[in-house]
Amino acid sequence: MERTNSEKFEKLIGELRSCRDCEEKFGFEPHPVVMGNFDAKIMHISQAPSISVHKTMKSFNDISGKILRHEWYHISDEVFYDPANFYITSVGHCYPGKLPKGGDRLPPKECAEKWLAREIELTDSELIIIVGGKAAEFFFPKEDFKSLVFSDRTIKGKPAYVLPHPSPRNRKWLMDNPEFLNKRVKEISAEIHRVLGL
Ligand code: SF4
Questions:
Q1: Please, which residues bridge with residue 163 across strands?
Q2: Is the pLDDT of residue 103 over 90?
Q3: Which residues line ligand 1 (CB under 6 A)?
Q4: Is 2 a residue whose pLDDT tops 80?
Q5: Mean of pLDDT over the chain
Q6: Which protein residue has the closest C-alpha to ligand 1 atom 3?
Q7: Measured between alpha carbons, how far is 125 from 78 in angstroms, rounded to an integer?
Q8: Ligand 1, atom 2: nearest CA belongs to which residue?
Q9: Residue nearest to atom 6 of ligand 1 (CA)
Q10: Pocket residue to mutate for ligand 1, from 25, 90, 111, 115, most atoms within 8 A of Cβ
Q11: What is the mean pLDDT of residues 121-128?
Q12: Is pLDDT of 180 > 90?
């Protein structure tokens, strides 16, 4: 009997959570992190989990997540982590470890190629949000990041917004582009509220 999208999705997530392909490269056991239902209203795609997310297995359970939820989206933790609201994933599903000079390693390219295309195929969201340059690069490889942030896009026919990473390490980009916090993020937040019925 043909599987439903929901069944295919559950199978995919089971396989994804068991993935340990990067163990040798990372030098520690990878912890793939995804949260939410296949038919969540919003598909939320970021770069890769932080060390704090790696330890707690909870997406955006860090300072970036607090900024995103409370200062940018203006939604509560309960709304963000409601599996019917957000399917939260990333181009690299595991914390990739630290670079010798500080900062996290880049998400492994093969991760998105292996998993994300299938997640997009099986999820049934109304809106797609992409957070960070590395995540944007996967979908729009040749495009200027700033112009992506300030324009409305579509992915597979669905409206998509690109946001800069909310990490405090990205403060310079936000200072150089004040119209993001002054205007653009408010438009995106309003659209999130509309889709969630808030
Ligand atoms: S980063 Fe992706 S490919 Fe690597 S172990 Fe995690 S889920 Fe697998």
A1: 131
A2: no
A3: 16, 19-22, 30, 32, 92-94, 108, 110-111, 114
A4: no
A5: 96
A6: 111
A7: 19
A8: 111
A9: 94
A10: 111
A11: 95
A12: yes
pTM summary value: 0.96
* Residue found under tokens 């669905």: 158
Residue 3, pLDDT > 90, answer no
Please, which residues have CB within 8 angstroms of residue 59's CB and are 6 or more apart in sequence? 33, 34, 35, 49, 53, 65, 88
The torsion angles phi and psi of 16, rounded to 5 degrees, stand at: -60, -45
Ligand 1 atom 1: the closest Cα is on which residue? 94
* CATH number among 1.10.10.10, 3.40.47.10, 3.90.770.10, 3.40.470.10, domain 5-196: 3.40.470.10
Among 13, 46, 113, 114, name the best residue to mutate to test ligand 1's pocket (greatest count of ligand atoms within 8 A of Cβ): 114
H or E segment at 133? helix 133-139
pLDDT reported for residue 101: 87
Is it the case that residue 1 has pLDDT exceeding 70? Answer: no
Q: Which atom of ligand 1 is nearest to the CA of 16?
A: 7
